[in-house]
């Protein structure tokens, strides 16, 4: 079923009966497991690639960031608004038709039959329009959130770290929390205009029923508005108060699970359980307050129409005269209709205000950094990466990586503390200890490379090797000189000192979303000396490595990361001391298999790798030597005549 989308089913199944989910519901009711293959695939028009293309087209047309985001959902939002308008008309017309039925009964005519049919079809149409409007707003929210998250991730990946001006926690909060505000607003968005419209229509209709006393009932119902706004604000404050308790509890549980061996060894279960219980108690206290506010809101919703009706009828009887049954029931019906917009209009205003703030924060993230020439990669034109890779792999002119560049960490540009000068124990006011130290810098350096070349960055620990390599991938700024544009290479393969693995199988960690090619996979595993390890794993290449590769040793994680780079075969490869976690023999074999000028898997790529071991420089055509003062010396390496030695055990099935 995964190749079929819900849009491929008949329209009545999608918009009336929702029959397309019946098979899934039947399987779930029977207790069967539902797998991904049983689910419908998402329609192509809702895919992030299509949405990103629409966003980029709008930006090229001169739209603002918010305007380009809204373009992705404007049709569905407008259509949902039209459906909500029909729903408002049906709700306003229902009390009128109820009055017609009662008048027909009083006059003993057959017109009541037509009014009854009108009530039936009016309610049916109104409910269908309301439900379809909610469905369309949900789809619009999914599209809006998808394109916003995609654009923010693209911006983060294309920016240098010193341009972020935000912590990782801030960015995670924007991506995870602020985009959820759109989901909260979606079902209430059209109430911002539909509620006042329905109140105005209801006021006019009830005034036609009962003359001026009808305004008393509308005024009583209007008192619901400030009450619901106050209760909604109180619930929001309660949730904000409960958030620190929830965060502390979840963090403590996660830390306890990660260090469960230490917890069991020292028998810390009871004190940790007591701390978790304390946080949970505070959380439950706030939840009780929130439920009390919600209960108050529900009580107001149930009681207000009756109080309003009593007030209207009392004033009418006192000043005008006896009531007719038709006017009484029609007025009661109309006041009940007003209950929904009066209650939820305040919530809609609060959600709208929160969504505006969230949209501002999202726009700030999207507009971080500059828009300088990253070419088509930054504008999102599909296929550009493949074109750039093809150009990067062609031999010929040397590409400049650095030109008279002086590098320094942006985090070293100021003192580590922002504390004010204050006297301590009668001494002179103190300053942060690091403020007297100049930031560490590397350079100046001028370096170029052509496809098929290997560059070794050699130096002791603390000499700035990682800084130099991270400058190539755009994570370190140049205070002087220039750094080559990273987008010129299309894609960059990168392996850091601390390999990043996710909780998937070994094969998934190596191919990392690329199409699976068995020959390339076998060659990458053989080059990184992985087959002997894979043969000992219970499920071979399908063995799950756990979160962050927790089930693997340090050397195995490093070789999986190197196999990932070897499998990708990017035109530019950056290896930040990947051989430090390997023993001398294994490091030698992996180095030869990857970087040998004639037979290595990365022989067609530009490879920059760092090391503090001089024996690893033999396969590099250029050696960049660094010292502890940040001085750089670039020399040509003539030691390119070492023999290739490979050890490739029989590969198990991949």
TrEMBL record:
<dbReference type="InterPro" id="IPR003439">
    <property type="entry name" value="ABC_transporter-like_ATP-bd"/>
</dbReference>
<feature type="transmembrane region" description="Helical">
    <location>
        <begin position="188"/>
        <end position="207"/>
    </location>
</feature>
<feature type="transmembrane region" description="Helical">
    <location>
        <begin position="341"/>
        <end position="359"/>
    </location>
</feature>
<dbReference type="Pfam" id="PF00005">
    <property type="entry name" value="ABC_tran"/>
</dbReference>
<feature type="domain" description="ABC transmembrane type-1">
    <location>
        <begin position="78"/>
        <end position="354"/>
    </location>
</feature>
<dbReference type="InterPro" id="IPR003593">
    <property type="entry name" value="AAA+_ATPase"/>
</dbReference>
<dbReference type="InterPro" id="IPR011527">
    <property type="entry name" value="ABC1_TM_dom"/>
</dbReference>
<dbReference type="InterPro" id="IPR027417">
    <property type="entry name" value="P-loop_NTPase"/>
</dbReference>
<dbReference type="GO" id="GO:0140359">
    <property type="term" value="F:ABC-type transporter activity"/>
</dbReference>
<keyword id="KW-0812">Transmembrane</keyword>
<feature type="transmembrane region" description="Helical">
    <location>
        <begin position="73"/>
        <end position="92"/>
    </location>
</feature>
<dbReference type="InterPro" id="IPR044746">
    <property type="entry name" value="ABCC_6TM_D1"/>
</dbReference>
<keyword id="KW-0472">Membrane</keyword>
<feature type="transmembrane region" description="Helical">
    <location>
        <begin position="213"/>
        <end position="234"/>
    </location>
</feature>
<keyword id="KW-0547">Nucleotide-binding</keyword>
<dbReference type="GO" id="GO:0016887">
    <property type="term" value="F:ATP hydrolysis activity"/>
</dbReference>
<feature type="transmembrane region" description="Helical">
    <location>
        <begin position="112"/>
        <end position="129"/>
    </location>
</feature>
<feature type="transmembrane region" description="Helical">
    <location>
        <begin position="299"/>
        <end position="321"/>
    </location>
</feature>
<keyword id="KW-1133">Transmembrane helix</keyword>
<dbReference type="GO" id="GO:0016020">
    <property type="term" value="C:membrane"/>
</dbReference>
<dbReference type="InterPro" id="IPR050173">
    <property type="entry name" value="ABC_transporter_C-like"/>
</dbReference>
<dbReference type="InterPro" id="IPR017871">
    <property type="entry name" value="ABC_transporter-like_CS"/>
</dbReference>
<dbReference type="InterPro" id="IPR036640">
    <property type="entry name" value="ABC1_TM_sf"/>
</dbReference>
<comment type="similarity">
    <text>Belongs to the ABC transporter superfamily. ABCC family. Conjugate transporter (TC 3.A.1.208) subfamily.</text>
</comment>
<dbReference type="Pfam" id="PF00664">
    <property type="entry name" value="ABC_membrane"/>
</dbReference>
<dbReference type="GO" id="GO:0005524">
    <property type="term" value="F:ATP binding"/>
</dbReference>
<keyword id="KW-0067">ATP-binding</keyword>
<protein>
    <recommendedName>
        <fullName>ABC transporter</fullName>
    </recommendedName>
</protein>
<feature type="domain" description="ABC transporter">
    <location>
        <begin position="419"/>
        <end position="654"/>
    </location>
</feature>
<keyword id="KW-0813">Transport</keyword>
